[in-house]
Amino acid sequence: MELQDQLEELEAEGLGAAAISYDSVEVLAAFARRHGITFPLLSDQDSAAIKAFGILNTVADEALGANKDDPAVRRDASTYVRESGALPVMVGTPHPGTFMVDAKGLVTARFFEEFYRERTTTSRILMRMGAGAEAVAGVEGDTGHLTFRATQSNPEITVGNLFTLALEIKPKPGMHLYAPGAEAFGYKVTRLTFAEGPHYRFAELEYPESEIYHFVPLDERVPAYQRPFTLLQDVVLEATRADQDALSKVEALSFTARLDYQACDDEKCFQPKSVPLTWTVAFAQPDRQRVRRSP
User: Fold this and answer.
1) How far is CA 159 from CA 20, 62, 138, 242, 245, in A?
2) Residue 291 in this model has a pLDDT that exceeds 50
3) Closest C-alpha to 221, from 252, 179, 162
4) Is 63 left (phi over 0), alpha (psi -120 to 50) or beta?
5) Does 289 score more than 70 pLDDT?
6) pTM of full prediction above 0.90
7) What's the pLDDT tens digit per position in 74-86?
8) In the structure, what pLDDT confidence band is assigned to residue 6 with cuts at 50, 70 and 90?
């Protein structure tokens, strides 16, 4: 559904879309009718394409075989197949992911997650590729040393989504902020720290490449940002059955963070400053309805 929502944007970038799954034509057709899917949903019921791409999930087979009671096999099944164990209907499933393919048929990028219910959103992929429309804007502010704007890859998320929260920062003229590595010189590195929550987890904060600022009076060369830059925070919305049940009445999720930084000009450094921030993202309940697979 998220891919369908981004279809017009994809086409504007010259990109096409198709989804391949081991589901039957009946399952895919029913899903397409319910949600108005207009791009191809391809039924690979014998998993031939899945095998050709090298992404066949063999854990279901193993979890139904002679070693099904092995603790390691059961752990793998809960991660790669189903929380409560494997079912025969799951034999032939792929490890889910997204391939980007160029006009010559060559794979140029791929996005895969470990847990079987987690998916990288189309909007996040476009943001990482520098394609598509501008990210969804949120709160903006001015601290005297810098201006900032909170953005996000997706206007709406659901369980299992991997998406990105971002903070665009623009130092005021003559100002610079410190990048990772500057702590060795005693300066406070710019950081964005998110509050933990019960139904999501954060990857490591991503910094852009910095430049070396030369502070002439002390002859210091320190990693810093003098031009606009963006901090990226990937978030995974947990997809366990317990998380899904806990979020069954939720319409939006808020993510709170604190921006800590130290600004300096060519003559002096100002006191470190902290700025509270919040991102609010609409939440959509997942579609779990299925029809019987054909024999």
Assistant:
1) 21, 27, 22, 11, 10
2) no
3) 179
4) alpha
5) no
6) no
7) 777 776 666 556 7
8) confident
Q: What is the CA radius of gyration of the chain?
A: 23
Contact status, residue 145 vs residue 270, Cβ threshold 8 Å: yes
How does pLDDT run across 257-266, given as a tens digit for each residue? Answer: 999 999 999 9
**For 92-118, what is the mean pLDDT?**
83
User: From the CB of residue 77, how many other CB atoms can be counted at a distance below 10 Å?
Assistant: 23
* Among 151, 156, 121, 150, residue whose Cα is nearest residue 136: 151
Distance CA 186, CA 160 (A): 40
Angle at 159 between CA 200 and CA 7, to 5 degrees: 120
Q: Cα dist. 15→2, 11, 18, 38, 56 in Å?
A: 15, 5, 10, 14, 26
**Is the Cβ–Cβ distance between 246 and 156 less than 8 Å?**
no
